[in-house]
Amino acid sequence: MSNRSKGWAIAVAACVGLWLVQNGSEHVTPPVPSAAQAFAAGPSVHTDAAADPLPPSPPVRLRIPETDVDTPMMRLGLAADGSLDVPPAGNRNMAGWFEDGTPPGAKGTAIVAGHVDNAEGPAVFYTLGALKKGHRIEVDRQDGTTAVFTVDAVEVYGNEDFPDRKVYDEADRAEIRVITCGGGFSKKNGYQGNVVAFGHLIGVR
Amino acid sequence: MRTTVRLFTRTALTVAAIGAFAVPPAYAGNSETLEIYPSEATPGTTVTVNTLACGKHGRGVGDANSLGAGEFHLNPSTHKEVVVGQFTVPEHVKPGTYGISVACDNGKTARGDLIVKHRRPSGHVQTGVGGSVGPDTAQVTAGAAVLAAAAVGGVLLLRRRASGAQGH
């Protein structure tokens, strides 16, 4: 190799190195669902028929095979301001369900929440915004059954206009909501919204 | 004979009166309206009921056993014609519609329905602090390594070039 071409190779390497350092220094935020995953993007391509609701039984584990989520489930109540309590931030692999509401698989709307991250880094639902319509959410229940849900939509809402009724109202079939933080981050105000995955029961194992 | 009839009538009336009290108010034929506030309540909420049925300075006993809240008393309120009472929706009541009835001291009854709804959360959740937000350290490290290698390469190349020039 001539000295000239060696010189070019070194110059190119220097440019690549600079780009890597500069690009990597920009802040990486959790995945944000694309507009195609919203309800507004038209009827779901995965029109899996709804399964008959199961009798109520508390959940013990939740899995999302597509994104390697596999987490135990704890009970959640309400905070003083009426918002849903969240699992302890110290545990990065822990989701919770709203205990006064519908358990997953039963008729109604089961509400599940977990952290997108904590002070140490990504947490259980870091990848929630990467879910797509038709992905599966599986919930192992205390009665030994596994409720299988399909994702109908993944939407992101600003904190100030969170659609309570759309997310929390009881459905007349077995549905699930999985909620975490997302939708932009600012150092001053933290996460600016929530990512919500909507699903309905399609089967039981 | 007349005494017998009178006695009989009195007994019949007494029996009827006892019967009227014995019949659970919920099944009484012509119950009056029992106003319930709020008409939809969540567990733990204090519910206030009032009715005109008991009349001026009347009193009554309310029956909220349908939802496990027991009995409660109704007393005259500041509005003289109305009696008012309160009970609390127990914590573990299932959602649904529950009949609440009141038996007034004057023999009248009142009835109304309370809808129990479970609390729903409201608003967004606080599930992140931003600990995952930050520079991509792996990428920055790789970039720094590439830069360092290029620098080393550059120095070697320049030295070789310099020594080559001396040789000529």
Q: What are the defining features of this structure?
A:
heterodimer, A: about 200 residues, mainly beta, Sortase, Chain: A, 8-stranded mixed beta barrel, two-stranded antiparallel sheet, B: about 170 residues, alpha+beta, Immunoglobulin-like, 9-stranded mixed β-sheet, 2 helices, 9 strands, about 30% helix, rod-shaped
Q: Which of globular, elongated, flat, extended, rod-shaped describes the shape of chain B?
A: rod-shaped
Average pLDDT confidence of chain A is 91
Q: H/E order of the elements of chain A?
A: HEEEEEEEEHEE
Helix content of chain B: 25-40%
Oligomer: heterodimer
What structural class should be given to the helix and strand makeup of chain B? alpha+beta
Termini separation of chain A? 64 Å
Distance between the termini of chain B: 157 Å
Strand order of the largest sheet of chain A: 1-2-3-4-9-10-8-7
* Tally of DSSP β-strands of chain B: 9
- Rg from Cα of chain B: 41 Å
Contiguous uncertain segments of 5+ residues of chain B: 15-28
What's the CATH topology label of the domain at 23-116 in chain B? Answer: Immunoglobulin-like
CATH class of chain A: Mainly Beta
Describe the structure.
The complex is a heterodimer of chains A (205) and B (168). Chain A has 205 residues and is mainly beta. Chain A is 14% helix and 37% strand. Chain A has one domain: Sortase (Sortase, Chain: A, Beta Barrel). Chain A has an eight-stranded mixed beta barrel with strand order 1-2-3-4-9-10-8-7. The longest helix of chain A is centred in the first third of the chain and has 23 residues, at 3-25. Chain A is elongated, with a radius of gyration of 21 Å. Chain B is built from two helices and nine strands. Chain B has helices at residues 2-22, 137-167; strands at 32-33, 35-37, 40-41, 46-51, 60-63, 71-76, 83-88, 96-104, 109-116. In chain B, a hairpin with a 6-residue loop joins strand 6 and strand 7 (83-88). The longest helix of chain B has 31 residues, at 137-167. Chain B is rod-shaped and about 120 Å long. The interface between A and B is large, with 63 and 39 residues. Chain B: The chain crosses the membrane at residues 140-158. Chain B: This is MYXO-CTERM domain-containing protein. Chain B: It comes from Streptomyces exfoliatus (Streptomyces hydrogenans). Chain B: Residues 1-28 form the signal peptide. Chain B: Keywords: Membrane, Signal, Transmembrane, Transmembrane helix.
